[in-house]
Amino acid sequence: MTVRVPGRGPGLSPSAWIGLVMLAVYAASGLAGPLIAPYDLSLPHVELAHQFEGSSPAHWLGTDPSGHDTLSQLLWGARSALELSVIVVAISSAIGLVIGTIAGWFGGAVDEIVMRTVDVLMAFPGILLNIAIVATVAHPGVPLTIAALCANGWVGYARVARGQVLALRDRDYVTAAVALGASHRRVMTRHLIPNLMGPAMVQMSFGLGSVIIIEASLSFLGIGPQLDYTWGAMLDQARNFLWNTEWVRIYALVPGLAITWVVLGANLLGDGLRDRLDPRQRGRGA
Q1: Does any domain span residue 9?
Q2: Residue 43 forms part of a structural domain
């Protein structure tokens, strides 16, 4: 069953709304996390007296091996994850949409070079390329991590943009613009890119979840961005102490569930947007 908007085709499905709400909770936690966190983690400190404490009124989700409040770490990690994911998706989508539009519009040798580059990057395991880039320095910072994630993050957007441009380039309004003397730049910026933003938004939604997983993987391996707290670093810390107490196993679930929450929300929203923006789905119920 879908929610319909009169005159605008089918609306978003209930699952898409659920995904949107999940991402909204994630965004709100990231924006307000350090402000609403029970404890201020901006200053480094160790409280071994509270090491591995279970859930209590003072620490709802317990504490970590250093005695830090787990809930506070989770909220601070949400801020780090939100900043990184939004920046990477924004840069990757901008690069990919421009390159894909150029390749689809000009065709020929330009298209061949771009698409063979895309094929090579997609054939190479993305996480290995990310690891190879961040491992070039002992302590990778946020800019290097962003560059590593964008190095192959743009290829999916380029493929989407190229495919849409190939379908749009023969439309009457594009042909008319060319006949009236519009430049290549004007055709691409005024007629092509605005009309491919629907599929691009779907790709962005899926890309958001992918960035969260890759960043967490890098932090789990100890080569992630040097941030105060990240969900991947929390998983890595829990792994080192799984033998200690039963509560550490629960501590390991906290960032894992947070990552699952964001990725699931992004996938649900992406699926809903794809159904909403696909003309073949218009007028259909479920």
Answers
A1: no
A2: no
Q: pLDDT tens digits for 22-71? A: 999 999 999 998 888 888 777 666 565 566 666 677 676 777 777 778 88
Centre a 10 Å sphere on the Cβ of residue 121 and count the other Cβ atoms it contains.
17
Tell me, what CATH number does 179's domain have? 1.10.3720.10
Cα dihedral across residues 246, 247, 252, 254: positive or negative: positive
Q: Is the pLDDT of residue 279 over 70?
A: no
3-state secondary structure of 10: strand
Residues 42, 70: Cα–Cα separation, whole Å: 14
- DSSP characters over 125-163: -HHHHHHHHHTTSSS--HHHHHHHHHHHHTHHHHHHHHH
Q: At what angle do helices 155-168 and 197-220 cross, to 10 degrees?
A: 170
The dihedral region occupied by 278, where left means phi > 0, alpha psi between -120 and 50, and beta the remainder, is: beta
pLDDT tens-place string over residues 237-258: 877 766 666 666 677 788 899 9
The pair of three-digit structure tokens given for residue 67, joined into one six-digit string = 């005695």
Q: Which amino acid is at 250?
A: I
Residue 55 forms part of a structural domain = no
pTM of the model: 0.85
Number of domains in the chain: 1
> Does residue 273 contact residue 205 with C-beta atoms inside 8 Å?
yes
Residue 135's pLDDT band (cuts 50, 70, 90)? confident
| Integer Cα distance of 104 and 110 in angstroms | 9
DSSP states of 60-101: TT-B-TT--BHHHHHHHHHHHHHHHHHHHHHHHHHHHHHHHH
Residue type, 135: A
Q: How far is residue 61's CA from residue 39's CA, in Å, rounded to a whole number?
A: 12
**What is the residue range of 261's domain?**
18-28+64-279
